[in-house]
Design a protein that fits this description.
Layout: E1 34-35, E2 38-39, H1 40-47, E3 51-55, H2 56-71, E4 77-82, H3 89-98, E5 101-104, H4 107-115, E6 123-125, H5 132-140, E7 144-147, H6 150-163, E8 167-174, E9 188-189, H7 194-203, E10 208-214, H8 224-245, E11 251-253, H9 271-274, H10 278-290, E12 301-304, H11 308-311, E13 315-326, E14 332-336, E15 353-355, E16 363-369, E17 378-386, E18 393-396, H12 403-406, E19 417-420, E20 426-430, H13 435-439, H14 454-461
Bound molecules: pyridoxal-5'-phosphate.
Pyridoxal-5'-phosphate binds next to helix 11.
């Protein structure tokens, strides 16, 4: 069948190619028509557009790959899934099936983890905001409470006294790892002695059982050496506690922060070329432990709380082209039905966007906008893509981390989320929001119930 070619008004334009990388500007060469065997068009027909899609196989494969990288180098490794990275219950349960504990940073996440069947002792409770009621629950459930500040330490002591129970605790430590800006707003500082001050206070409190040490040094960390530095500083504290108190901690938790293969904005290289292999991180961390003064028989459990690096690649966002237009400078603009409301991470990443159907050889540099009435709603500032027309579909890649927890409900409703299982079957794992769902949370005071109709209003003013 011969399709009529679309007429494109000729225009002269300045080439503003955006940031070059060493491969010049990239073009998307191949359409992505299927995800794990499921046609994109069919997913959109069944579940609407936009729609998030998660691949169970990719989640499991990546988990095993990263776990193996550490487990082959160090004898005792435990992963704890970072809930805030993606706390859809179906996703969390895949990680728990794979053997991950839960790492939570709020009471809400804590309850989610319990409801997902995670035993209390396998929940790591992080973050600066733990209410007394939440601490009580965590003490009763024997969870691992990572103390963030002295105020929390004092409240926790009171909670334990009141309950007449002991708490299993660690402190979060921040330190100079050679990567700046330093994340020093969480936990106790290593260099200035705050960490030791907190340790001494805990060791002097019979109700607080010190079981571990924790650091989470940043996110999308491109330097494996930073983890080596963090590990050595925590090991120094570990050995110091052993010397001073003859007390052996059971674990050292190095947090998360390993990068995914996403393309960081402003980076010269693409994510695939920029990001060090996971093996480099595992090697650096394992060496720091094995080459330390800790005797082989006393090596602590190594806990990692990875989020982004595990789930990013398993997530896709499917969407539809709403319109094309020319900007004042002649540059082509394509408007999509998803924007920064759903793809929050497009503030940091140049997400790869692929057309979901065959296209002609003609490509053009364009800007991709979302549907929101805000100027900052830009999905890609500059990308070279084949021309797409209204109704065509696109696939955004590496969107599994943070978008489904940081998304915002601004002027529209959050869409369906679908899981493709390992046999290629589609499952709806979060229903798209409805007007009723949003309205069910609202209340209109009595005096605002009646709205005069236009006629009544005219009558009043007569
Ligand atoms: C967010 C967070 C993580 C996960 O971070 P990623 O960069 O997604 O790996 C782990 N631990 C703590 C304490 C966190 O706040």
């Amino acid at each position: 069948m011969i399709h009529k070619q679309k007429y494109e008004r000729p225009s002269i334009q300045k080439v503003s190619a955006g940031l070059m990388n060493k491969f010049a500007t990239r073009t998307e060469y191949l359409p992505v028509t299927h995800l794990e065997g499921a046609p994109v068009k069919r997913i959109v027909e069944e579940y609407g557009s936009p729609v998030f899609v998660l691949s169970e196989r990719k989640i499991r494969d990546r988990y095993r790959e990263v776990y193996q990288a550490f487990a082959t180098r160090y004898p005792k490794v435990q992963f704890a899934w970072s809930y805030k990275t993606n706390y859809l219950n179906a996703v969390c349960r895949i990680y728990h099936q794979e053997g991950a504990w839960a790492e939570v940073v709020s009471g809400f996440e804590y309850e989610k983890a319990l409801a997902n069947g995670v035993p209390g002792e396998q929940i790591i409770f992080n973050g600066p905001d733990k209410s007394e009621a939440e601490l009580e629950k965590a003490v009763e459930e024997r969870s691992l409470i990572h103390i963030d500040h002295l105020d929390e330490l004092y409240v926790l002591k009171e909670v334990c006294d009141r309950l007449d129970q002991n708490a299993r605790v660690a402190i979060r430590v921040n330190m100079d790892t050679g990567v700046y800006p330093q994340w020093d707003r969480f936990g106790f500082n290593y260099e200035n002695g705050q960490a030791w001050d907190a340790i001494n206070k805990i060791m002097a409190s019979p109700r607080l059982q010190m079981v571990g040490l924790h650091a989470h040094i940043g996110t999308f960390m491109l330097a494996p050496s930073a983890y080596g530095a963090a590990a050595r500083k925590l090991i120094d504290l570990f050995l110091g506690i052993k010397r001073k108190y003859h007390h052996r901690l059971t674990y050292i938790d190095l947090g998360g922060g390993l990068p995914s293969a996403n393309n960081l904005k402003g980076a010269y290289l693409s994510g695939a070329d920029l990001v060090p292999p996971i093996d480099d991180y595992a090697e650096t961390i394992a060496s720091a432990f094995l080459n330390s003064d800790i005797p082989a028989g006393e090596l602590p459990l190594l806990i990692l709380e990875n989020g982004r690096t595990l789930v990013d690649e398993a997530g896709y966002l499917l969407g539809t082209v709403l319109a094309n237009k020319r900007l004042a400078n002649g540059k082509r603009a394509t408007i999509l039905d998803f924007g920064v409301n759903l793809l929050f991470t497009s503030f940091w990443y140049n997400h790869r966007i692929s057309p979901a159907q065959e296209f002609s050889g003609y490509t053009e540099e364009m800007e991709l906008f979302g549907p929101l009435c805000m100027n900052i709603d830009v999905v890609r500032e500059s990308v070279t893509l084949p021309l797409m027309k209204r109704g065509d579909q696109v696939v955004a890649h590496l969107v599994g981390a943070y978008n489904m927890s940081q998304w915002m409900q601004f002027i529209t409703l959050r869409p369906n989320i679908v899981l493709i299982d390992e046999r290629g079957r589609l499952h709806l794992i979060r229903r798209g929001e409805t007007l009723e769902y949003i309205n069910s949370q609202e209340a209109v005071p009595e005096h605002l119930q009646a709205i005069p109709t236009l006629q009544e209003e005219m009558h009043l003013t007569e």
